[in-house]
Amino acid sequence: MATLLVFHEVDDVDHWTASSKRDEFFGPMGITTRTFRDPGNSNRVGVIFEGVPDRETFEQGLQSDEAAEAMKHDGVRPETIVTLVEA
Questions:
Q1: 32 forms bridges with which residues in the sheet?
Q2: How far apart are the C-alpha atoms of 44 and 8, rounded to whole Å?
Q3: pLDDT per position in the chain (87 positions), as tens?
Q4: Distances from the Cα of 49 to the Cαs of 39, 41, 67, in angstroms?
Q5: Closest to 21 (Cα-Cα) out of 62, 65, 71
Q6: Of 2, 10, 7, which is closest to residue 55 (Cα–Cα)?
Q7: Pick from 20, 28, 71, 73: CA 20 to 30 A from residue 12's CA?
Q8: Where are the alpha helices (DSSP H) in 29-75?
Q9: Where are the domains of the chain?
Q10: pTM of the predicted model, to two decimals?
Q11: Among residues 32, 66, 28, which one has the least CA distance to residue 49?
């Protein structure tokens, strides 16, 4: 299992924070999430993903139509996603 730290920008931080889409999408895969927001009031947010089977599976999941719909709903700006793997 892997732990990932992902940063990205969103259109509306409050909407993104309140959304259940992350848990709906990643929960069935056994992945838990912890969310963070930039205290400088920017649109940058972060998520710690724990219980990720492997990075390849995670990345493939993000390429799915279901993930695209969830990201659109949450206002995620996909071009800003940066993924860090626990060392």
A1: 50
A2: 6
A3: 999 999 999 999 999 999 999 999 999 999 999 999 999 989 999 999 999 998 888 999 899 999 999 999 999 999 999 999 988
A4: 20, 23, 15
A5: 71
A6: 2
A7: 28
A8: 55-62, 65-74
A9: 2-85
A10: 0.91
A11: 32
Q: What is the phi-psi region of residue 41: left when phi exceeds 0, alpha when psi lies from -120 to 50, beta otherwise? A: left
Tokens of 79: 């071009």
3-state secondary structure of 56: helix
Cα distance from N-terminal residue to C-terminal residue, the chain: 13
Fold of 2-85: Alpha-Beta Plaits (3.30.70)
